[in-house]
## 1
Amino acid sequence: MKAYLLDAAVAQYVHDHSTKPDPLLEELAKETAEVAGERAEMQISPDQGVFLTMITQLVAPAVAVEVGTFTGYSSLCIARGLSGGRLHCFDVSEEWTSIARRYWAEAGVAHRVTLTLGPALETLAAFDQTVDLAFLDADKGNYPGYYELLMDRMRPGGLIVVDNTLRRGYVADPAHDEATTVEIRQFNDLVIEDPRVTVLMLPVADGMTMIRKN
Ligand SMILES: C[S@@+](CC[C@H](N)C(=O)[O-])C[C@H]1O[C@@H](n2cnc3c(N)ncnc32)[C@H](O)[C@@H]1O
């Protein structure tokens, strides 16, 4: 579990009292660690996976979008929460998403998922469907661009969930001026100043922001 913002005892307690990943998600996490090494850190954590499945069940989207698929953990959790809708996944990497494809097939959700490879700013700009639910977890510098493109396509009442918005807590420390932290800070400021939305930052994992289009 990524619990950068909790002390160890509380993190363990949260872990013990949250639903655990099933064997297929565990296998995906294991394979990702083997093939991606340190980059496996990009994968969402099991508690975030439970969160995404629940959110998808609650929103019941006809159209869901994920920006940043990697080896497929978050997309699998979203796809499993769908009840008849479709998940559109955007990523640049054939290598990583080929793993995701295998797991969608194994989980029996491949028929609910469409993958488009290419820079997501371009893919999103060409996407002409109304979006009910979006999960944003790609290159942080492009978050403002993804956000504006998504906002143009979200239905009123639709929900955007954004990952890594607390950057291990660095965003709250002005002494941290590393590029990604500055980018995330700017994105967080942009969102909270946007009168079109209601915003809730959750101190889950590395920070997840829920943004509801009013
Ligand atoms: C943090 S990982 C996503 C992790 C994934 N959500 C999971 O749970 O396993 C970020 C992903 O964004 C992709 N990415 C980076 N820049 C991108 C871009 N400009 N357009 C589309 N995808 C991009 C990377 O290839 C990588 O797979």
## 2
Amino acid sequence: MMKADILIVGAGISGVAVAYNLAKKGVKNIYVIDKGYFANGATGRCGAGIRQQWGTEINCRLAKKSIEFFENAKKTLDYPGDLEFKQEGYLILAITNEEHEQFKKNVVLQNKLGIPSKQLTKDEALKIVPHLNPNSFLSATFCKTDGHLNPFKMTEAYYLAAKKLGVKFSFYEEVLKIHTKNNKIVEVITSKDTYQTQIVVNTAGGYAKEIGNLAGVDIPVYSENHEILATEPVEKMQGPMVMSFAKNIYCQQVPHGAFLMGRSNPYAEQNHDVESSWQFLDAMSKTVVDILPIVGNLRVVRQWGGSYNMSPDRQPIISDTDQLEGFYMACGFSGHGFMFAPMTGLLLTQMILNEKTDIEMSSLHLGRFKNIDTKLIEKSVV
Ligand SMILES: Cc1cc2nc3c(=O)[nH]c(=O)nc-3n(C[C@H](O)[C@H](O)[C@H](O)COP(=O)(O)OP(=O)(O)OC[C@H]3O[C@@H](n4cnc5c(N)ncnc54)[C@H](O)[C@@H]3O)c2cc1C
């Protein structure tokens, strides 16, 4: 039998960020339990793009403050390696008039919040990425401080910093049961031990709903498979991430030269499938050749899938709940939880410690789904 002041389920980027922030505030006796190793879930399978060009105010704020953290993360976390943070922007293509008009509004919102994005004409976009097919888009938006990070190194940086502050990690240990009594948590049963604890943090990614169920907490999220591929590495030819919501693609060249690209499957089912398919390869190739024809000449060396944990409004759930005292969660990131992790860690820590949060939390709270406002649904997603 072990005793934990706080038990965190899942050592993906969210779990390690929460653990680090709690430990930095002086909380002792924190355990992080993962059924695999760190980055075993979506974190180790993601595209690791970092962008601030969002359509809702809350996502813009989360992303902007997170980027400020990433810019200094190596020093702040005292990480010995290179986090491979490249800030060469995101170029988001408007394909339709409707997108062109919507992006105009998005840029106004982003600029109001201090995000240095701008709307570009076709010619201006072609100056930034000359190998774009000029007939494939109308205009674009660009934010030069958006970028890409190595997800394994970033997770390791948080993990090492948290460990140095005394957080205990246990890998290859699965959380199996959460016992409660009178609306309070009593103990957590794992595949290896029993932990007496009154606080559980659910950062189980694609399995957040199941962890909620173990505690009798209903979380309206589901998982679906998103596929991605990597090409052979080539000499540097593209700085920014190129993205289109209408054409359903994101594509960028990472520092070691490979192109990473992904798209969502409109027919994806709600399950824990993380397989890869020839149908994805086929659709992905056709889309990239349409937008970035020259990239079509590269050989694909690897493809894989991973879970997006989807929330009803496509925005994260960073929350406590009146369904169970001491139960906290960060999930439902809907495919963008890597870039928000610094704020996830900070905000959940502030909530657990009953401090004033840096951002007003109502639009991130689980309770919002009782009355969903369709105007606030994030549409800038692939
Ligand atoms: C193909 C793809 C591309 C993506 N691209 C981007 C991107 O460009 N930018 C971006 O910001 N985000 C992106 N995402 C989303 C991002 O990967 C996730 O939102 C983020 O990694 C979620 O991190 P997490 O720590 O919350 O969950 P995860 O990384 O999934 O971690 C959850 C952990 O919980 C553990 N766990 C689960 N159940 C149990 C249990 N019962 N007991 C113990 N441990 C358990 C798992 O082993 C896992 O390690 C992408 C995702 C995919 C799949």
